[in-house]
Amino acid sequence: MAAIRRSDVPTTIENDEVELRMSELGEMTASFIRLRKGADLGPALAGLPDDRCPCPHWGYMLEGRLAMRTGSGEEVYEAGQAFYWPPGHVPVALEDCSYVDFSPTEEFASVIRHITQG
After folding, report:
1. Consecutive 10-residue runs of the chain (118 residues): their mean pLDDT?
2. Does residue 42 contact residue 69 with C-beta atoms inside 8 Å?
3. Residue 45 in 3-state DSSP?
4. Which residue, 13, 38, 47, 113, is most buried by CB atoms nearer than 10 A?
C-alpha cells in the first residue's frame, strides 16, 4: 500500500499557467495539477497524435472548471466531479482549477517528455 501528499511530490512543470507534481504509484502515475484561468495546453500537445494528449486519465476535480476539447466536441468538468478522460483530449482552464489524476506511467511519461523537451 502507498499514499502520497501533494506537498511531498516534486514539481515537474511549473510556470505562470501550470503546476504539475507527479509521482509513480505502482504502474500508475498520480498527478496533482493546477491550471490558471485561460491555460490552454493545446500548444504544448502540438506534435502528438492529432495534436491531443494520447494518454487516458482518471481523477477528481478539486476546484474550478475545465473544458476538455476532443475530436467530437467539448466537455466541461467542475469541482466535485470524478472523471475519465480517454486518449485524444486537450485541457483548457475556464477558471483557476486543480485536480488529481491517475494515468498509466509509461504513456504519461511520454507525454511529459514531449511537453518538457519540445
Report:
1. 87 96 94 98 96 98 98 97 98 98 97 90
2. yes
3. helix
4. 13
Distances (CA, A) of 77 to 35, 62, 98: 13, 10, 11
What is the reported pLDDT for 33?
Answer: 98
**Amino acid letter at 78?**
E
List the chain domain ranges. Answer: 13-32+95-118
Give the sign of the dihedral formed by CA 61, CA 64, CA 69, CA 72.
positive
The amino acid at residue 82 is A
Angle at 50 between CA 17 and CA 39, to 5 degrees: 10
Distance CA 50, CA 44 (A): 13
What is the torsional sign of CA 24, 25, 28, 30?
negative
Tell me the pTM. Answer: 0.92
pLDDT of residue 118: 65
- Check if the beta carbon of residue 80 is closer than 8 Å to that of residue 106: no
Q: Within a 10 A sphere around the Cβ of 82, how many other Cβ atoms?
A: 10
Residue 1, helix vs strand vs coil: coil
